Known about the structure:
The chain is mainly alpha-helical. The chain has two domains: 87 residues, Winged helix-like DNA-binding domain superfamily/Winged helix DNA-binding domain (Arc Repressor Mutant, subunit A); 46 residues, no CATH class. 53% of the residues lie in helices and 11% in strands. The chain has a two-stranded antiparallel sheet. α6 packs across α7, α6 packs across α8 and α7 crosses α8. The longest helix has 14 residues. The radius of gyration is 16 Å and the shape is globular. InterPro entries: HTH_HxlR (IPR002577), WH-like_DNA-bd_sf (IPR036388), WH_DNA-bd_sf (IPR036390). This is Transcriptional regulator. Keywords: DNA-binding, Transcription, Transcription regulation. One of its GO terms (molecular function) is DNA binding.
Amino acid sequence: MKKNTNQTYDTGCPVAFALRMFGDQWTLLVIRDMAVKGARTYSELLDGGEGISTNILAQRLKQLEENGLVSKTRDPENWRSFLYALTDKGRDLAPVLAEIILWSGKYNHGDNAMTDTLQKVRRDRSGFEESIRNGAVP
C-alpha cells in the first residue's frame, strides 16, 4: 500500500477516501454550518449549536483547509480575523448533505428533530444543491 499526503494508507476505497476528507461528526457539522447556515467566521462556526470546543474547531478548519474543502482569507473589515468559505470541492458535497438530510428525515423520529432544512430538500432538492454549489444559503 502506498501512503497519501495525509500519511494514512490509501486502499483505493471511495468510502475510505471520503471518510478521510470529512468523516467525523465535527467536520461534517462545520461543512453543514458553512453550506446550510452561511457561517463564515470562527465565532459563527463556534456558535453552531452543537457544542464544538475551540480546539476541535481549529483542528477541523485546518484539516478542511489542508484537504482543499475550505479556504481561509483575512477579513477585510478586521485584519485580525479570518473568513472561511467552502471551495468548489467543498460545495460539491451538496448532494451528500442533501442525502444525509433526507436519510435523517426518514429515520429520526425524535421530538426534537429539526425539519426546516428537510422540507427545503424535499420541496426542491436540485435547488437546494444548486444554492450550495453557488455559495448561497439554501
